[in-house]
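Hey, can you fold this?
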Amino acid sequence: MQDCWLREINCWKCGEKILWSWAFGARPGRRRALKIDVDEGKASALGVALADINSTLQTSLGSSYVNNFINGNRVQRVIVQLDAPFRMSPDDVKNIYVRNRTGTMVPLSAFTTVKWIYGSPQLQNYNGFRPTNSSARPFPKSTGEAMDAMEKMVRQLPSGIGLEWTGQSYEERLSGSQAPMLYSLSSARRVSLSFRAV
């Protein structure tokens, strides 16, 4: 359960062009986290070591690397974790067992309590400013046209709100001005190759 918003933007128009089929953005702020409290006294009384509890939780809810095996001519990793349906809700912790010193399986629910809490906020800065990240899929136009329309829309917003591209969009903008030069170089190379072939 993350503190974020999901917005459907169907047929939103910037001029006459359909811009996005959907957009997603994350609001910075407090995040919900699942907290598992371990009663060390009860665990010790049941003969369960804290290291075993941590290892069991890591393997069950996260994952653990076991080893490699050879499958044909490929070396593949063996990763162990609970199947997704068995680790989807906080109640699933009740069904996880850990081995005690005598070899008996003890349920985690015997010495743990599970609850949702609010964790510390995730604060991100981008060039010294607090951003709101968003992702979108252009529909039905190209990404370049969608990015142009987004820049046009941001220019209409009040001062103090800006837009910067990151990741693949940034690379696309960076290389966009180089396209004519790269095309001419590839054409010249093709002409020289065909000239040599004749």
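Oh, and this one too while you're at it.
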Amino acid sequence: MKTFITTALAFLLCSMAFGQIKKADRLFDKWEYYEAAKLYEKVAKDNPSPDVYYKLGQCYQKMFRFQEALTAYDKVNASGDYSHSDFYLNYGLVLKANGKYEEAKTAFMKYDSMAPNDPRGKFYANSCDVVLDDLQKPVNVTVTNVESVNTSDAAFSPAMYDGGIVFVSNSSAATGTKTFPWNGKDYLDLFYAKRDTSDVNFGSASSFAGEVNDKYHDGPATFTKNSDTIYFSLGPSYEWTLVPSNRDAFRSGKSSTFHLPPQGPGHPPQDREEGEVEPFFGEQNRR
């Protein structure tokens, strides 16, 4: 009787783990890596396997959480030769992101031996040699942290505007209450920071005013020479699309151009024009 109960319990636990893996796989296939990682973590705790750790590592890699990705990938590597060649490519990239260039080169060469027709193996292996060589030739460069805009949140693609910069960030001050399923963070918005006393001193960043920021991704942005017009990309949900439009215009194949007021970024756009748009990258250019 005791043996039967133990066997039944083991079967139940295996079934639960299998169900969690299937759910995590569905989330992974939908690019919802944040929630997928939570499930893979649960499965790895009770039923660890190289396949589960590989999927977990991929989730963290996609979210740019490279230290956690490396922890997962190390466990895959420690289990012995892994049958999926792409693991060694990803392992090398994460090792490189963590500054482990010698180990990364080994992983890239392993990938090259398993996928000799893919030039990326040799290319990335050579890139490790370049970095190691550069580290032997230090250059005197001063890097200043602009703390008012450079926070733990994502911040990128600055554009000069009205005596300051407009940039993209997923700061907690972003518009809307939704979170991006890819990484569990806020959706990207456009922010403005006024230049202060020098090029490395800026005031605190605030949300770019008006209709520009929606509840999903907004930006990057660029401006006309006289700064009266902004062109920016805005995608519905988390479908990556380089289209300067709002969501309604995107769905109807229209572009949006906002004309900005002379008063500056604290005031809403004056009007909007729409026109036909075409994708910059066609289907033939996608991989």
